[in-house]
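Let us practice reading a record.
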Amino acid sequence: MSKLRVLYVASEIAPFLQITEVAEIVRQIPQAMHDRGMEIRIIVPRYGTIQERKHRLHEVVRLSGINITVGDDEKPLLIKVASVPQAKLQVYFIDNDDFFHRKADWSDSQGNFCIDNDERSIFFCKAVLETVRKLGWSPDIIHCHDWMSALIPLYLKTAYRKDPVFNQSKCIYSVYNNHFDHTFNAESLIEKIIMQDIDKEEITQLQTANYEGFTRLAIDYADVAVAGTSFYDGVSSELLREYESKKEIIQVEKPAEFHDIYHQVLSAELVSVV
């Protein structure tokens, strides 16, 4: 029996960058699944706050050089890689001079939310899928964490649904408490997100152009939505409770629990449909 292939997509991972609880969770779950014999890939943004020399990042030339479309612009993609210390896990970093070289993650040094985070998210999500295509590695499970990866479930079910690399992939979306107050320009946001096989009517959730819109979109298009129990103490708990009336939201407390969740999703025993 071939190994289960799991792709993890997130905005942060320890020890390279740790802003919220997501970083440690994204470090623990892949390790737990690797220890259980799964084949793992991890992809995160290469924010300017990540110290390349300290963490020994180096460019993967064979994967770099793709242009990613964001609205009317095309942005060159750089891929870098590093190993998690004392673990047999490689992390791929999505990089671009315009979006990720500044000394900021999703907020600047003064704590101000970066107003181009919508474009950074679009670039990141498209770049993740194009990188996996170039790797020629078909994931069984794509496990997305938090709002920066929220567009991937949409793209998988629309623009990439017939792609042989992804047409058998199942998508899981993990919700966290990383709410932001910024509201993007709705018309501009939707126009930038639209690509082949995506109509405006399919992304009406994003008319709010805020955190709730990104989260609703991801939950609607994911095969399964997941939340840790701590989510219910967060500022967005009402959003998740709203979904519980029409779509099962799984609560997970320990990384090892995902072993059974992944297998259940693949066997169609665990599929949430709005």
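A brief commentary: The chain has one domain: 5-266.
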